[in-house]
Amino acid sequence: MNKAIVFIEVGSILNLLSRADAAHRMGYHTICVVEVYEYEKFCREYHVDKHSYFDVIIPINNFSYENLLNILYKLQKNWEIIAVHNVASLCHSQGYIAATVALLANDLGLPNKNHSSIIECSNKYLMREKLYQIGLQDKDYALVTSLSDCLIAADFIGYPLILKPVNGSASHLILKADNKSELVENYQYMCRRIEEGGNPGQYNFAHNFQLPRNRSIFMDPRNMFLVEKYLEGPEVSIEMIVFQNQVVPLLIHDKVILTEERSKILEHFLVTPPDRLNHEQIDELLNYAETAIDKIKLNQSFVHLEMRYDKNSGPRIIEINPRIGGMLVPQSLKTYYGMDVSEWEILLCTGSLISIPAKIEQKNKYAMFTIYPNQEGVLLSIEGLEECRTKQGVVYIHQVYPNGTHVYCQDEEMFLVVGWLQGNSVEFLKDLYHEINQRVNIRIETNSLHEMI
Fold this sequence. Notes:
The protein has an 8-stranded antiparallel β-sheet with strand order 17-16-13-14-15-18-22-20, with helices on both faces. The chain has helices spanning 17-25, 36-45, 65-75, 97-107, 115-122, 124-133, 147-157, 180-195, 200-203, 279-296, 329-337, 341-349, 385-389, 426-439, 447-452, and strands at 2-9, 29-35, 56-60, 79-85, 91-92, 95-96, 141-144, 161-165, 175-177, 207-211, 215-219, 225-229, 235-243, 246-260, 265-272, 301-310, 314-321, 365-371, 377-383, 394-399, 406-407, 417-423, 441-445. The longest helix has 18 residues, at 279-296. The chain contains 15 helices and 23 strands. The model is unreliable at 448-453 (pLDDT under 50). Helix 4 (97-107) packs antiparallel against helix 5 (115-122), helix 5 packs across helix 6 (124-133) and helix 7 (147-157) packs across helix 8. By secondary structure, it is an alpha+beta fold. Pfam families: ATP-grasp_4. It comes from Alicyclobacillus tolerans. InterPro entries: ATP-dep_AA_Ligase, ATP-grasp. Residues 128-350 form the ATP-grasp domain. This is Biotin carboxylase.
């Protein structure tokens, strides 16, 4: 029988295309099990020959373990399934899809990321509980279900503090409070925005998570939030890879320009190697991250960590994601390792990755940046990109979403333009970023938003 990789996604099929293409280049057949809505949206919005990427496409609505297992059993009659893989599905109304996929792979005797580790990473409260148990986290956080819970937690933790969803993404609803009145306002804002339906797929599922020693914890993302100490210090992202029970740090990006806004934190300009940290601090961050990933027991996965070097407590983890980083992390890994991340992801999910190449020494510094929308509506055009591409130091610049896309900005990040820059100093790169930001003109029709709703 032909060897096939089964991709299971509730996110956009578009995210899978590079992985499916890589799988085909490596001699594998590909099968896509995808949410019906996403499949229909893909067919409607993208002029792509789907069957040039996938040998079989199975649109479904039921992503329960039992239904997916039944589909896999049926597929095994005609295919030799060598991997069951999820690229980057977030929390969903039917559960932690990436964890379900890992459990399916495990039960079929295939390489997998470890389903319980994925859940602990996907739920920010459970992640902190795990870090606390292994001695990497102070007890400066709390799970809250009411405003009174928030106020009690604030008395214990102290201000400033952060209120956030337990399983949000894209910097959605990250609310900083410097005092009691701001915390009250933030809690009411959080409840209102989630009730209004922001990111419903991530929050509309209450569930029990099994803990060791036959214990469990009930989680309801619509009504249970995380309160935690605000970390004051430079923020970085760290890219790692875990395979064959080895944890290997790859890159660290320094978030040189980052803004803390009303209900989100936006990263605009990231530099590698880091600019604001000395060698000792970098080593501390990497050692802390390696220890955490080793103890959490993720495996066969890229890992993207968000961290801060707090002025009082040193390295601290904000979040752990069992996937490749966003923005232009793939471009950065290509620059420093010659790595096609899609091919490497196929090697990971099939258990075929044995080693990684040595890091390529670069004389220049590199930076990635993004430009966000400043209002909601329909994207009409982005002007000035061609001119920016001719600038010295611009390696790559790209419009992420096609014209006609509904764009948003109220409570979360949305990349409209991303770019990869090179230069001999951070100052040069920062000046180039600011020049590009001035020259790019994003045109958004706000009235169309109301017509679409």
